[in-house]
UniProtKB/TrEMBL annotation:
Lipid bilayer topology: Multi-pass membrane protein
Subcellular location: Membrane
Keyword Transmembrane among record annotations: yes
Pfam families from the UniProt entry: Yip1
Keywords: Membrane, Transmembrane, Transmembrane helix
Any single Gene Ontology cellular-component annotation: membrane
The UniProt record lists the keyword Transmembrane helix: yes
Lineage: superkingdom: Bacteria
Protein name: Yip1 domain-containing protein
């Protein structure tokens, strides 16, 4: 089962990458059975916490989003995550030949690397049930660092390249990931200006 890899990536990542490489799952099945499921964790938890729990900064009053606004934000976040993973997977395959990958002809490898490397970020979504900004920031920062390490660790195994090339390949992919992140932020600003911004209420 694809979801079993999520646990293995935290306990024995190198063995898990070898197993993932051997599977050669079809990209569509991998996307639907893994990314679509795990990417839903953060939006669902964010909806629950922002619409029902609320948050406060310092001694300020409790702040919540209206249920419609929270649902709207969660759906948009979910779609952005799905697009982001796909874009990163596409970039991995697109750059493969440049960095001498021997497995660039296998279309599932890019999506597999992107999807499984994002596992810590997917699971970090549970932290949103405790809507304290500094706590969420620390959890997601730690998850992003571990996700970056997972990608670096998995590149030589899944794509069949030398460990030395994985440093440059991984650096290029992290740059792509940052561009994707900035693009989502810009997209958020545009959508908010179009009237799709958050609607706050006092708790």
């Amino acid at each position: 089962m694809l979801l079993s890899h999520a646990f293995g990536l935290f306990t024995h990542p190198e063995d898990e990458w070898v197993s993932i490489k051997k599977e050669h799952e079809h990209p569509t099945r991998l996307y639907v059975a893994y990314v679509v499921v795990l990417a839903a964790i953060a939006p669902i938890c964010a909806y629950i916490s922002t619409a029902h729990f609320g948050w406060s900064i310092g001694s300020e009053r409790l702040i919540k989003l209206t249920e419609i606004s929270a649902l709207q934000m969660s759906v948009l976040t979910y779609l952005a995550m799905l697009v982001g993973v796909f874009a990163l997977g596409y970039a991995i395959n697109w750059m493969a030949k440049t960095y001498g990958a021997k497995e660039e002809h296998v279309p599932s490898n890019g999506i597999a690397l992107a999807a499984y490397s994002c596992t810590p970020l997917f699971l970090a979504g549970f932290a949103l049930l405790y809507p304290v900004p500094w706590f969420n920031a620390v959890v997601f920062l730690a998850a992003a660092c571990y996700g970056a390490w997972l990608m670096y660790d998995g590149l030589p195994i899944v794509m069949g390249i030398e460990k030395e090339r994985a440093v440059m390949y991984g650096g290029a992919l992290l740059t792509v990931a940052l561009v994707i992140l900035v693009s989502t932020r810009v997209g958020s600003v545009i959508l908010w200006n179009l009237g799709l911004g958050p609607v706050f209420v006092s708790g």
